[in-house]
Amino acid sequence: xxxxxxxxxxPPTSFFLFGPRGTGKSLxxxxxxxxxxxIDLLDPEYFRVYTAYxxxxxxxxxxxxxxxxxxxDEIQKVPYLLxxxxxxxxxxxxxxxxxxxxxxxxxxxxxVDLLAGRALHYTMHPFLPSELGEHFIFxxxxxxxxxxxxxxxxxxxxxxxxxxxxxxKEEIQAxxxxxxxxxxxxxxxxxxxxxxxxxxxxxxxRECMVERKTVEGYLKVLEDxxxxxxxxxxxxxxxxxxISHSKFYFFDTGVFRxxxxxxxxxxxxxxxxxxxxxxxxxxxxxWMHYRNKNNTLYYWRTxxxxxxxxxxxxxxxxxxxxxxxxRSIYPVDLKGLEAFKKDYPEAQCILVYRGNERLQKxxxxxxxxxxxxxxxxxxxxxxxxx
Length: 386
Hints:
By secondary structure, this protein is an alpha/beta fold. The chain contains 16 helices and 14 strands. The mean pLDDT is 91.
C-alpha cells in the first residue's frame, strides 16, 4: 500500500487510536514512530503470550530501557493489558503508549477503564481527498469509497467485497457480538436503503423480519465498531416546525455501495445520489474531527419538506450545504437553501454539484463537488473554499 501522510498530529503523551479496519492505523503508527517497540496482538504468538501472561510487557520494557514509545496494535484483543499500561504510565518513566484498535467496545465490555483519562482518544477515518493529493480520483472514490485498503487495491471491487466479509467474520461473529448472522446480514441490506436518509428503525425491523429492539441493538453494534454514524436536526433558534429523526450514514460510501442490493427496479441515479451525499457526509465529518474545532454536523428539514443536506455549526461559523447529483442547477434545487437563509441570514449557503463551473445564484455559491471535497483541509475553515 502507498503510504499517505495523514492529518493526525501525534500528541506527546499516551493515546488511543481507534478506527475501522483498513483505515491505515498500523501503517501510520509504524511510519510515525519508527523506533518504537511494536507489539501486534493480531499475531497469534503475541496474542497467546500476552493473554496468558500480561506481565511479559513489563519484562520486555525492563530489557529495553531505551524504548520509550510502545505501540500495542489491536489492544482490544487483550484488554487486560490496560491495567498494566496504566501502572506503567503512573510510574512516570517517560513511556508513551500508542494503543490502536478497531473499536473500544470490547474494552468497555471487559470492564476495564480506558486509562482513566491518562490517554487521549483519536480516531482514524477513511482518507480525506486533501490527504490523497494527486492520488485523489473523484469517480474512484464515489464508486469504491476512501478506505485505504480498498482505495489502493489493484482490484478494489474484490477487495471491498472481502473487506465487508471480514467485518462480518472477524469483528462481529468472532467476537460473539451477534449470534444470528443471517438475520444481521438481512439487517445490513435493509439498512443500506436508509443510507443518506432519515432513519426509520421500525421500518428496518419489518424489512429484515426482526423485532425493533433487535434492530436497535444491531445499530449499537455498528456504532461501536465505527461502521456508521448519524446526524441530528439543526433546531437552534428554529422558526419553523422541524422533523425530529436523525439521518443515517455508513462510514464509507464504498461499503454502502457494496451492501446496497441492486435489481431491475432500482434506479442507478438514486444509488449514485445516495453515494454522493454519503461521500460528502464522511468527508465533512472527517474534516471536522481532524480540524479539532468546536463544530457540529447537522441537517435541516421542515415538516413541509424543505431540506438542507448538511449544516455545519460552531466555532468556524454557520454553513448550509446542499448536495445535488446533477450537472445543471435549477431554481427548485435552491429552495431549501433559500428558506434556510431567510431564517438564518448569517449563514453561508453552498450548493455542491456534478458540474465543472463555479456559479453564484443569489446568496448561494455553487461549487463543483470534486473541488469542494478536495479543498476541505483540517488547517482551513470552509470559508477559505468560498
